[in-house]
């Protein structure tokens, strides 16, 4: 006769009770002194099956499939995104050595404030208009100083007589004023007057100086993109859209922004201030280093390869466009 299902003392362990289902013991044992529940014990959860070697495991949240789990005490070895530290990495500790950096960020351990190292991924390359590097600020400054020196010599030759006549008009006034300053005499009675001819001579000299500058720079820039100073320093102005001559119209627009304010030197040197702002504006322009006169004429100043240099141009001449008078 079979035994009815129920809770019975386990013969193998008299201190416990187990459920007999009529054919065998099932369920987990309970202490013998504990009142058993009514009915059979709840079914035990099935143990998870061990994955086979050829069966891939499901990736943990935030970890790509196939990535190895992290070792105890180590940060995960999978990327979280450009420039982001790995999940679990202590906040405020930067990024672990060798961790991928975001675009434009220097590698881990690079000195702070030094910018990214040369060639580091994410650093935008320097522009090369028409395959040529941009001229440096130093080369452009030296070229301009050479041109100014030449213009000063031209003005000495052409404006010399007008300058001498102007000095003859103002020297009595200046000499008497200086004598009274040395004598601590603040009176203005009896000072020689400056005639209106002196003011007219200033206007004439400024007109001649502006005309000399125009004649020196515009023709050479229109045909070659270079003045004498630019030739010596190996720089040249070219249109932004094509490597071709500037043309007369573009050369005039480029010169007028910097040259015409010479006429305003008469107004408390206001024109000189405008020319200074134009000259230094290239220092703050990125990425083409264009001064205000470059922006108006849509030109850019490039550095030409030196003779015998191995550097070659990567872009051919573009002659398909019309001459450089187009804006």
From TrEMBL:
Membrane topology annotation: Multi-pass membrane protein
Residue ranges of the TM segments: 141-164, 196-216, 263-284
Biased composition (Pro residues): 58-127
InterPro entries the UniProt entry points to: Pra-immunoreactive, RDD
Annotated Gene Ontology cellular component terms: plasma membrane
Biased composition (Basic and acidic residues): 307-327
Residue span(s) of domain RDD: 135-297
Biased composition annotated in UniProt, kind: Low complexity: 46-57
Entry keyword annotation includes Transmembrane: yes
Pfam families with a match to the protein in the record: RDD
Region Disordered, annotated ranges: 1-127, 304-327
UniProt keywords, alphabetically: Cell membrane, Membrane, Transmembrane, Transmembrane helix
Compartments reported by the entry: Cell membrane
PANTHER family with a match to the protein in the record: MEMBRANE PROTEIN (PTHR36115:SF4), PROLINE-RICH ANTIGEN HOMOLOG-RELATED (PTHR36115)
Protein name: RDD family protein
